[in-house]
Amino acid sequence: MKIGVVGAGLMGGEIALVFALEGFEVLLYDRDDAALQRGVVRLDALLDKGVARGIYTAEAKAEALGRIVPVTDIARFSACDLVSEAVFEALDVKREVLTALDAICKPGCLLTSNTSTLPISTLSAALAPSRRPAFIGAHFFSPVSRMALVEVIPSFDTTPETSARVVGILQRIGKTPILVKDVAGFAVNRLLHAMLIEAIKLVEEGVASPEDLDTACRLGLGHPIGPFALMDAVSSGLCLQVQQILHDAYGERFRPPALLKQRVAAGLVGGAGRPGWTRASIMGPAKAQAGR
What we know:
Blueprint: E1 2-6, H1 10-21, E2 25-29, H2 33-52, H3 58-67, E3 68-71, E4 82-85, H4 91-104, E5 110-113, H5 120-124, E6 135-140, E7 149-154, H6 160-172, E8 176-179, H7 188-204, H8 210-220, H9 227-234, H10 236-250, H11 258-265, H12 279-283, H13 285-290
Parallel strand pairs: 1-2, 1-4, 2-3, 4-5, 5-6, 7-8
Antiparallel strand pairs: 6-7
Helix pairs in contact: 1-2, 9-10
């Protein structure tokens, strides 16, 4: 099989990588060479860490990178058997990509979306009716190279054969797929953001600091990472975006906290070395020092 991935960002790049590591040839698309180059450099550094830790051999690294072909011409996807859309989490952007793929991909090509919140049946409206039975959600989790779970979300039109084929392919690349009903936010993000919203409210109310709540979740609940460290890793801006979608779908229980909105507006979003959740960033350095 030949795989296509649209979007060379954090998610798309690693989706391409997990397929390449299992021997698939992968076309990795982005609109410009600079974005593609950044994506390849990121994957090279990720694989170097894996080699240093004994996860991959140097030979496996070279072979995987050799199977990933960066392209800026989406028409190259006409030869693909499965295409994963992994672009920005915005309905208009994803619909534009799916419409382009609909016109390019061969009959029988499996189309998947890595959306984390948008209903698959809503996205499928961008496709011709004949294409919709082979379209399905395949929501990977970050970091894709380490997280085993993939939510598989059939739309109203997805056939059981498509679901079974995609589940089988995901198992071939070492993932654990679960089938989830097509609703906004699916399953995991609804569970996760209910916890994140409550964690931020605890900070707003002065019950505990972000650092102490992270410690509580790691040592008291057995989570590998606390809620604030997780928000820093994926960025608070993305968390706010997801919560706004969930709030639109489900109402008051997913209303984004005022503190989250304030921090995102101030640029305190975490991710890529930017300022994140700390006691000092909540209270100000002087008050934080006095409270220690």
